[in-house]
Amino acid sequence: MYGTVAHMKAKPGKADELIAFNNQMATNKPKGMVAVHVYRMDSDPDEFIVAVLFQDKASYVANAQSPEQDKEFRQMRELLAADPHWHDGEVVQSIT
Known about the structure:
Layout: E1 2-9, H1 15-26, E2 33-40, E3 47-54, H2 57-64, H3 67-77, E4 85-90
Antiparallel strand pairs: 1-3, 1-4, 2-3
């Protein structure tokens, strides 16, 4: 598996909109997406950590380069105080 972990902060008053946006996006999952986990930080309710998993790197890259994903990112970016910090990589261990 392959994916990304993102650290992002919503604009003041936009956290609930960001959550709603992510819920809407989840109904139309891109090909190869396995899961999305969104964590709201106890220390700041406007701060989120998002983990996104894809079947493989090729699926992740295809989604990242798609015009649809670019459009969704631009819509999400309007709700954020700054650009997210992305950390891409191969999933080498998953314990459930």
